[in-house]
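Async update (no meeting this week)

Hi team, since we skipped the sync, here's where things stand on the single-chain job. The sequence we agreed to prioritize is pasted below, unchanged from the tracker. I ran it this morning and attached the output directly underneath so nobody has to dig for it. Comments welcome in thread, and please keep replies under the output.
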Amino acid sequence: MTEKARAAVLLEPRKLAVREFAVPEIGADDAVLRVEAAGLCGTDYEQFQGHLKGTPWDVFPIIPGHEIQGWIDRIAPAAAQRWRVKEGDRVIVEASIPCGKCFQCQQGRAVLCHAGMGYGLRISATRPPHLWGAYATHLYLHPQANVHKAPDDLPRDVLSLCNPMSNAVRWAYERGKVGVGDAIVIAGPGQRGLLSVIVARAAGAAMVVVTGTKADAVRLALARELGADATIDVDEEDPVARVHELTGGRGADVVLDVAAGSVEPILQAVEMVRPGGSIVLAGLKSQKKIGELVPDKLVMKEISLIGALSSSWTAFEQAIPLLQRYRAELAKLCTHAYPIERAETAIRALGREIIDRREAVHVHIDCTLDG
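Output:
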């Protein structure tokens, strides 16, 4: 009898349904993952709402879930040799599935691969073998997937922070180049903003400042617990003036914008970054335009304006040791877990549509639970 996988399928915006799919037989060079958990982020909520029109991620029907961890269920010898894993090994799977041949892949930017393949966002559930997202008990591992060995001793919820931690590494450290003695402002205290506090601390930053709104009081408190030197409620005080006060008038070396939906942090970043400093834009703005941006200020201050999307192989490799080193602090971010059958509740809790017991910070789908 063919083994069946359970999956939550996003049929259209705001409409999820649990479906069964046959677990595929492996070929000469691929594998099947038994999914342990799928982490959620703001992109999951944007996808659920149908707000990704005009992007490669406007795909329906689809099995969401691009933050993937699990155990190798079955694997072909060639794949085992390439990924250096065996059946039963615990692994992290990157969202992008690179072709490995195009210009972007050769530059190490798998997320910009011309083939446009990836888990949870880009491939419809109608495409065989169907299991292309992690809101499921099983996932098909394409021969070109990027797989990282994961430690067995990390708790499930902490390990489910690996994808956002890798983003924080890439955005703050690899792209923003935050380093010893720097002052960094992190705009937006979502999970990636909070994890960027950890990365900045590990990189040796001298001052870490996190901004948010009145609605972010719980998360700003978490930022301070994680080591932020100061937090700013932008509804109560002028963030630009406060940053200049905190830096003795010098300004921030790096401003990392991870705030979703709002363009105001970009305008503030131009004013609070020091001459010669860097602004890293990583928060998606739902296709909004920046009406009051004065480009001359970027020129006159020689500001580096850097876009950052997703992660990299090296960022994942650095994220895993950070999860191990800071596991006790990171457990505070892990607020909610749901079975596959309650995926809609998970997404709505993350998007602050509902409050389930307490405010959601990091949410994951526990794919080992029965509904």
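Quick observations from my side:
The longest helix spans residues 162-175.
The chain is about 30% helix and 25% strand.
Reply here if anything looks off.
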